[in-house]
Write a structure and sequence with these properties.
Radius of gyration: 19 Å
Shape: globular
Largest sheet: 4 strands, antiparallel
Number of strands: 12
Structural class: alpha+beta
Strand order of the largest sheet: 1-8-3-6
Length: about 230
């Protein structure tokens, strides 16, 4: 789990709270489950009564418009929590959670989660910061959609991705488990063709390299410069 992305976990053992069996503790109120690629963990209108902690794999959170078009809201990876709106009064799910690859989650019921919040003071801050950061991220994406063109949105997305999940390797920044062009298009409200064009342009400028497994930013300063000039 990338420490820069999850700075709010510094003083709390989230894995031990959500997944006690993973650490050898016996607790029948927690469930660990593995999902196959292509499964849905939940769908819109499902009962909203569980919180999920992602320990392995990737999960896409999204919704459907009135016309049936899929809207991608987030793609989550190891160490992230989802389904947390069950604690905010959500009765039925408004979003779906789709498994993008073999995934393992620890599941806690809403009632049990309320007890954990009473027992672990740091967990309250952890969840508040998750909810707050997601609201800010959605606001940022909305502003980007309104005020920036497609190319700028894609470049900005790459910068944010490196900031959240990047690991320094010498003078370069590495992001493992890079997304597909279609996934990036869904998150930036652009087309797959536009994403491919922008990535190829940046690769030709020797700013980055990429394949299906990783993204390597060779020069962050140049990438930031592309945002200014795009």
């Amino acid at each position: 789990m990338d420490q820069q992305a999850f700075w709010y976990l510094e003083n709390i053992d989230v894995t031990g709270i959500f997944c006690p069996k993973k650490l050898g503790n016996i607790d029948d109120t927690h469930t660990q489950r593995t999902f196959k690629k292509g499964e849905y963990i939940y769908l819109p209108e499902d009962q909203s009564d569980k919180i999920y902690f992602l320990t392995e794999g990737r999960v896409k959170i999204g919704s459907y418009s009135d016309s049936g078009k899929e809207i991608t809201k987030a793609i989550l990876s190891n160490g992230e929590v989802f389904g947390e709106l069950a604690l905010a009064g959500e009765q039925k799910r408004r979003d779906f959670a789709y498994v993008m690859e073999k995934t393992q989650v620890c599941i806690v019921s809403t009632d049990e989660m309320k007890g954990l919040l009473r027992d672990h003071n740091g967990l309250n801050l952890f969840l508040m910061k998750i909810m707050g950061s997601r609201v800010l991220e959605m606001e940022k994406r909305l502003e980007s959609l309104v005020f920036k063109d497609s190319r700028s949105r894609i470049v900005e997305f790459l910068i944010d991705l490196v900031d959240k999940r990047g690991k320094r390797v010498g003078y370069e920044m590495l992001v493992r488990q890079f997304m597909t062009h279609q996934e990036i298009a869904n998150l930036t409200a652009t087309s797959r063709q536009t994403v491919t064009t922008v990535l190829n342009e940046l690769r030709n400028k020797n700013i980055l390299k990429f394949d299906r497994r990783r993204l390597l930013i060779r020069d962050m300063e140049l990438l930031n410069g592309e945002l200014v000039t795009s």
